[in-house]
Write a structure and sequence with these properties.
The chain has 155 residues and is mainly alpha-helical. The protein has one domain (11-153). The protein has helices at residues 11-24, 27-39, 50-66, 71-79, 84-94, 101-104, 131-153; strands spanning 106-111, 114-119. It has a two-stranded antiparallel ribbon with strand order 1-2. β1 (106-111) and β2 (114-119) form a beta hairpin. α2 (27-39) runs antiparallel to α3, α2 packs across α4 (71-79) and α4 (71-79) packs antiparallel against α5. The protein is globular.
Amino acid sequence: MRVASRTGRNDAMLDRVATDALRSRSPEKLEASIRDLLSGLDNAGLREDSRDLMVALAPLHDCARRIGLDPAAVFDAAAEGASPETAQLAREFGRRTDVSGHSFAFMVEDTDEGPEYWHVPFGVDLKQIPREEREEFLARRVEEFERRLEEDQAP
C-alpha cells in the first residue's frame, strides 16, 4: 500500500479518483473529483503548495480530454466554491495545453479492468516494474524521500 507523501496526499487515492473518473466517462464524476481536490477538507494539505495541487489535478485534466470534454470548461465549473486563489489556479490550469504524463509525472496504463492512472516518480520508468511490485516500490521511494527530508531538517 502506498503511503502519504510529505504533503499528506496519498498518491494511490489520487490515482484511484482519476481512474474512476476515466472509467466512468462521467462529466459529473470528473467535475466532482476536481471540486473535491480544490475545496474538500481531506485535501487541504494538498492545496498548501500549488505545485502539488497541479500534479494532483493533471490526471483529471488528461481525463477530461480523453472523454472528449474541454478541460477549461470542466475546471471552470469545478472551481466554483473554491477559495479565490485556488479557483484562479484551477481556471488557469484548465486552459493549459502542456499537461502530459511526462510533464506532470503520471501515466495511464490499459488493464483488463480499463485504463488506470499511476503517479510516477521523476526518473523512473514505472512500466518496467511489474504491476504486482509497483506499490511496494513506490512506498519505499516515499519512505526514502521522507527520511531525507528529516535528515535535512535535523540540527
